Amino acid sequence: MARFEIPDGWTAQAYTFALDPTPTQIRAFRSHAGGARKAHNTMLAAVKAVMNQRQAERTYGLDEDELTPALGWSLPALRKQWNARKHEVAPWWAENSKEAYNSGLDALARGLDAWSKSRKGTRAGKTIGFPRFKTAKSRRSVRFTTGTIRVETDRHHVTLPRLGRIHTCESTRKLARRIEAGTARILSATLSEDSAGRWHVAFQVLVHRAVAVPGHVGEGESVVGVDVGVKADSLIVATPDGRELDRVPAPKSLTAAQARLRVLQRRAARQRGPYDPSTKTKRRPSKRWVRQQRRIGRTHAHAAAVRRDVVHKHTTALAQRHRVIVVETLNASGMRSAGGSRKKGLNLALADAALAQIRRMLDYKTRWYGSTLVEAGRYFPSSKLCSGCGRRKSNLTLADRTYVCDHCGLTIDRDHNAAINLARLGETHRTGATGTGTGSSPAATVSGGDGRGATRESATTPVVNAAGEEASTRHQQLLGESGTVSSEGEAA
Length: 492
Ligand SMILES: [Zn+2]
Fold this sequence. Notes:
Blueprint: E1 10-18, H1 23-59, H2 75-89, H3 98-120, E2 141-144, E3 150-151, E4 157-160, E5 164-167, H4 173-181, E6 184-193, E7 199-208, E8 223-228, E9 235-238, E10 244-248, H5 252-270, E11 275-276, E12 281-282, H6 287-321, E13 324-327, H7 345-369, E14 372-375, E15 402-404, E16 411-413, H8 414-435, E17 446-447, E18 454-455, H9 472-478
Parallel strand pairs: 8-13, 13-14
Antiparallel strand pairs: 1-7, 2-6, 3-4, 4-5, 6-7, 8-9, 9-10, 11-12, 15-16, 17-18
Helix pairs in contact: 1-3, 2-3, 5-6, 6-7
Bound molecules: zinc ion.
């Protein structure tokens, strides 16, 4: 599939706004999303039918050129086929923008392409299954790529093709200002409904951004390590010399939302759910249960929004204040700590999700502000190393909130200790860079790839720790198999 090339000096970015549509507009949104689903499912069924037909014909011993011609899988081919069928399968098609059907077909074309590449082994990552039919429960969404897509000058409305002016819950000023200044261009808009039943529009925008704005002049420490607490609700920032710069606890509103979630979930557990434990079969859930699930969804959405807001503020501050920011790497395989128990699986999944979000934001923000994001190697035991003497503690469990070194007797908060170790890793990174004479080149180590902040780091840079005399070779082993600071595991 042809890929759109982003011109130099521009970056692609999304601006999402929560919408406040009228009931009529909601009906129109649903109709459009339904149209996308119809086009997707109709053409998926057609593609499958032809595949099965060809398969059957092969078993009769027909030659390849005698088979029923295959259906094209490209978007234009699917669109052509859809246009030939739509009068029959969707006589109401004219009610919606053609973009509705197009987005369903586009999703199908991408899905088929991914599946076939995955099957041939030309696609990296997990094995991709054959596209599935979208059901009434699938997330509703439509993508608009042509027509009138606009952010209104009043900063409280957006305009989409066929749907017209839609009121937004929040001000669109950030995007509107950029568009007025000519430093942003809207490429497309995706309208979607979240699990809480709220509609959002996400504008995919090309933004002209002066890269490497020197935000960190004089202020702040140049190298910091950032540890995400095991409870996934706190951020601890420390310097290589062991000072704790910042500790961000979970916001009160988030704790409240989580408490509410627990109550709701307990209540839902007592209601008639879709699974009958006595017969171990599926059943029709009660209306109360369904309503309860919707409430849970809304609370989840609220908690996520609160957390996102907090994380945005802190990652911006980090990227603006410090030159090098070191974070743990994601734990793709689900084993954050060898000493951790399976029971903590959910908490760890949450911690990983929180870390993924922080890392994602830091990745692009460090590029905006000219700082560097370094990821510790996957096997770097940031929480197990003693920040005092550099020894490694093997019997540290997730329950241990305080790190007590058996060797030097250091007693320190677990997350603070981890943050210091991470910061020291960044120190190496920086001295390594100056050693080669490049100075602190902004975002120099953030390579392109999939844009997820892969870092290049010399494997030979010795790690100097507080004890000083600790041999670098020791740490080379600790740095992980390759001894490099690298990014792995795209779990996000
Ligand atoms: Zn120690």
